[in-house]
Amino acid sequence: MKEKILVTGGTGYIGSHTSVELISDGFDVVIIDNLCNSEAIVVERIEQITGKRPRLNIFDICDKGKLDRFFEENSDIAAIIHFAAFKAVGESVYKPLDYYRNNLVSLIYLLDAMKKYNIPNMVFSSSCTVYGQPEKLPVTEESPIQPAVSPYGNTKQIGEEIIRDTAVANQNIKAIALRYFNPIGAHPSALIGELPRGIPENLVPFITQTAFGLREELRVFGDDYDTPDGSCIRDYLHVVDLAKAHVIAVKRLIEGGSKKNYEVFNLGTGEGVSVLEAIKSFERVTGIKLKYKITGRREGDIEKIWADPSYANKELGWKTVSTLDESMRTAWKWEKYIRSISQ
Length: 343
Ligand code: UD1
Known about the structure:
Number of strands: 13
Shape: globular
Largest sheet: 7 strands, parallel
Bound molecules: uridine-diphosphate-N-acetylglucosamine
Distance between the termini: 39 Å
Helix content: 40-55%
């Protein structure tokens, strides 16, 4: 068995896929999750896929007493992958303090624990949201950071700064921030996937729920953007590809391959896809005609963004392999699975 890795938010969407990839690579995975946006049953599904059930510790990282007790018993952790956070952009605008408290207090407590218990490595879940609307595309890691448009986005920017300053001040702490573009799709087994509570904010869960008949129709937020078909452009990557990047990042930290104490990588496919193209891909792979209508723009939306992933390609030896069609196929398989067991 390889090293013990703490995955915070390990029952969530990206956390569960990463736990699967870590276990499949031989790592010993221990999860902390307060289940505020996920289900405990996810660890059973991870076991179904990998043959090994990760240990799930159910508590909030903002509870310092419980966190300390956890590390007293687990001071042999080799790296932390920190996913646990709130992520709804719209909600963050009217609940800013909840977002700052939950996303930043938890991070500070984890970094405190890294110092106290000599845990040397952290991988941080960041986002392309830090680039705002970039002037030049595609975006590299050197592209300027723009003022955040939402408290959620600000927690990612401030989170990166807190980690960078901590790694500079403590040479025995190393960290990698991974800036995700738009993760979509589900594990090919369809046993784990994205399960938004209530009405989905993100495009692909809204598409699959509409196709399943749970939503009346999809609203395409604007077709008057300065893009070839007028709808917004994003870089959609398959969640399993994204999960694999975390395993590589953890190994890079553990094996001492980092160039600096604090590194940042863009994780995307390098290809921009419009909302209308995403819909076409879904229709192509499922044979379903999706009900949608063009509506006004969504406030705070970025017109177009896609990654230059060449630094991650070169330094991490990581590259996305799944196509957009494959992502849509697995997202649909997952939607059907989850509805079949919840009825
Ligand atoms: C944004 C952030 C991302 C963050 C994520 C969390 C940017 C560039 N991205 O993703 O970093 O992690 O929120 O939720 O800031 N759309 C529709 N109809 C819908 C839903 C979405 O047309 O019902 C369109 C949006 O206008 C957008 C695209 O689909 O063009 C993707 O939207 P979404 O899935 O919400 O992700 P982002 O807003 O890109």
